[in-house]
Each structure stands twice: as structure tokens, then as C-alpha cells.
Amino acid sequence: MLSNKGLLSASRYPLNFVKTYTCFNRTFSISDLINQDSLKYENQKLDVQSDLKDRLKRLLKTFNAPIQVAIGYGSGVFQQAGYGSSAKPMVDFIFQVDDPVRWHELNIQQNPSHYSLLKYLGPKAVAEVQENYGANIYYNTQVPVGNSIIKYGVIKKESLMDDLKNWNTLYTAGRCQKPVTLFQGEDFFYPLNRQNLEQATSAALFMLPNKFSEFEFYRTIVNLSYVGDIRMRLFAENPKKVDNIVSKQLFYFRKLYLPILNSRFAVNFPSYNSKLHELNGHDSTFLLEIEHESNGKASDYFNTLPINYRNLILAAARTRGFSENDLWLRTSIQNRQMLSITALKHLTQRSILTQSAKGILTAGLYSSISYSLEKLKKGLFRFSK
User: Fold this and answer.
1) Is pLDDT larger for residue 314 or for residue 31?
2) Given a cut of 50, is residue 273 above it in pLDDT?
3) Which residues have CB under 8 Å from 217's CB, separation 6+?
4) Distance CA 56, CA 261 (A)
5) What secondary structure does DSSP assign to 76-112, as a single string?
6) Rounded Cα gap, residues 72 and 294, in angstroms
7) At what angle do helices 333-363 and 365-384 cross, to 10 degrees?
8) What pLDDT score was predicted for residue 74?
9) CA distances (Å), 354 to each of 82, 161, 190, in order?
10) What angle do CA 201, 160, 50 make, to 5 degrees?
11) Spatial distance between the Cα atoms of 82 and 278, rounded to a whole number of angstroms
């Protein structure tokens, strides 16, 4: 197991730890963020603007079908670089429900316009498409609700649990490794996602050298679920999306991961003599340097990964002639990165492709083409800038 050295003493904090900044009328320092109690899920409680949160809570109450866990994510909830202040991107949700057949039955009765022609086959057929194809989630997209345009994915309890714990597809788990805000279901979601966040941290540390910056770490976390996404290579997604997510949501990534890095993985945040680097010209928040024993702890990091992902890394290693001991003792960080990327592609590519294909059936041909063209247009436009 990984050692737990506890919290660093205040005297060991580099000078930028005392820098404070305000988010939604609360003032934080790096020390505040590092000292959050992740066992009580303080790091996962991410606030968004109160007027936005109130509006989205009212929106959720319009659904008659019962929702056990409601997760908000993406640029409609957390601002990303690449969107102007006046832009209003679609709001993304994940709804965990206990009985998908009954849920779709009630929702089709209330909101038939949310569904494609698939609704005429009945709620059982809709639930079967949800659970048996793609990433075990059923999306209704570009849905007008009140003054918002939303996309919501419906997933059953067991499927959400399996992905957060075991990375069955990394489709939902990958979204929850990035900042999300929870509207209901804290007792169920937070313990499971704590494990997911810790496993994502292990996966990133397994691939990173002895020294790296915060930006490199958060970028590696985000990229776990994008490595196998063919849409990034076809410009159906913004090719700068990963950097945009991190740069605009740095505070939230710090809140999520700094206490995990410190208390669970005992990394160091050394004081160093070079000038503190700024994230970009529009953000004066300084990046931290992070240190860990990459080779010495590689085995520990590996053993905390989901077994499904571990087996894929070992399979990739065997095909290239590495033994398990080579992986820990003699393999370079470049080889660990290569094996991890191979495993991630194997893990995610199929679910991404089949989920995208399923979108034609669940959203309808016109909405699916419209949505895809809009994504392509945004991706090509931002790539050309």
C-alpha cells in the first residue's frame, strides 16, 4: 500500500501556498485546498454560481420520473476556455436511476419530444438499448427545458457503480474524474467517486516523471478518457479541449486533487528558485511544482488501479516482451506511458465508438447530424485559430 505521510507542515509550504483567491465569495489559499478532508468529501463539494445552481435545481424538479443521483458537468456548468462570456453552451447531466424501464416509461409520458422514434418501441426497448450497447448510458440531447438546452444521460445504479469502481468503460468514470457538481445523491456518489479520483491519480502518477507541474498532472488526468477518442483526431471535438478544460477550471482541479496528492499519495510540493510560472496570460494563479518517486513507487501506483485496467497494461507489456518485474524495475517512464496509452485506447475506443453510433438511434438522425456538425464546426474553428 502507499504510505501516508500526513500533511506538510506550514513551514515547508513554498511562498505561493499563501497566495489567496476568491471563488463564489469564499477566500482560499493553496494550504486551504491541500488541507481539505477528502475522507469527508470536502474536496468533491464543488460550488457553481448560486443563480446557475438554483436554475438547474428548478430544472431538475420538472422531471416526474425519480432521479436518485443528478450530476452536472461540462462547459454549461463549469466555464471552459474557448467560450465567450455571452455564450451559453448546452448543460450536460447524468441521471442515475434505479429502474430504467419504469423511468423511461414515466419520462416518455411526460416528455415524449425528448426521444427519437425509438420511443414507439416502448420503454423496455429504450432501456435495453441503454443497458446493452455503448457505455450503458442513454442520452437525450439538445432538449429544451425552460430557458436551457440540456443533454441528459440515464444510467442505472449498477452500471454507474461498476464504471466508477472498475473502469468498465471509463466513459462515465472519466467524466467524474473532471469537475462535476452534484445536485442530489451525495451519500451514494461521493464514496464511489473518491475511489475513482484516487485511481485516476494513481494512473497519472504511474505515467509522470519525478518532477512535473500541476498543469501536466491535471492534463494527464483529463486525457485518461480522451486518449481513445477518435473524435479528437477527426476534429469532431475541439483539439485543444483538454488544455481548455484545465486552464479554465484550475481552481476546481486543485480542490479535487491537491488533498488526494498530499494525504493519500504523499507527494512533495517543493519550494524552488526559478520564477513561478503563470498558467496563461488571463490567469494569474501560479502553478505548483510536484515531486514524487516515479520508479520507486510505480508498483504501488499500479496496484491501486482497477484490475481491468491493470490487466490491459500487463497484456500490452507482454506483447512487447516486458515481464512484470521489468515494468517496475527497469522500464523507463516513456515505456510506462506507452503501455498506459495502449491500455487506455483498448479500454475506451470501443465504448466511445459504439456510444457515438448509438446516438444516431437515441437522438434521431436529424438531431444526431445537427449535433455532430456543430461539434465539428467548433473543433475546426478552434483548430484554425
Assistant:
1) 314
2) no
3) 204, 208, 257, 261, 290
4) 32
5) TTS--TTS-TT--PPEEEEEEES-HHHHHHHHHHH-G
6) 34
7) 140
8) 87
9) 28, 20, 28
10) 75
11) 19
Three cell numbers, residue 37:
478532508
Half-sphere exposure of 368 (CA within 13 A, CB side): 15
Confidence class for position 22, pLDDT limits 50, 70, 90: low
Q: What is residue 285's three-state secondary structure?
A: strand
Question: Which three cell numbers mark 255?
Answer: 480542490
CA angle 187, 189, 194 (to 5 degrees): 105
Per-domain residue ranges for the chain? 10-265+292-384
Residue ranges of alpha helices (H) inside the chain are: 30-34, 50-60, 100-110, 123-132, 157-166, 171-176, 186-207, 214-223, 230-233, 241-248, 250-259, 298-303, 307-319, 324-329, 333-363, 365-384
pTM for the full model? 0.85
Beta carbons within 10 angstroms of residue 363's beta carbon: 24
Position with higher pLDDT, 357 vs 340: 340
Higher pLDDT pick, 131 / 324: 131
- Mean pLDDT over residues 205-209, rounded? 95
The whole-number pLDDT of residue 75 equals 83
Q: Are 178 and 245 in contact (CB under 8 A)?
A: yes
Measured N-to-C along each axis, helices 123-132 and 333-363 cross at an angle, to the nearest 10 degrees, of 170
pLDDT digit string (tens) for 53-68?
A: 899 999 999 999 999 9
Distance CA 7, CA 15 (A): 17
Ordered DSSP codes for 163-186 = HHHH-SSSHHHHHHTS-EEEEE-H
The pLDDT value given to residue 9: 35
Mean pLDDT of the chain: 82
pLDDT in tens, 188-203: 999 999 999 999 999 9
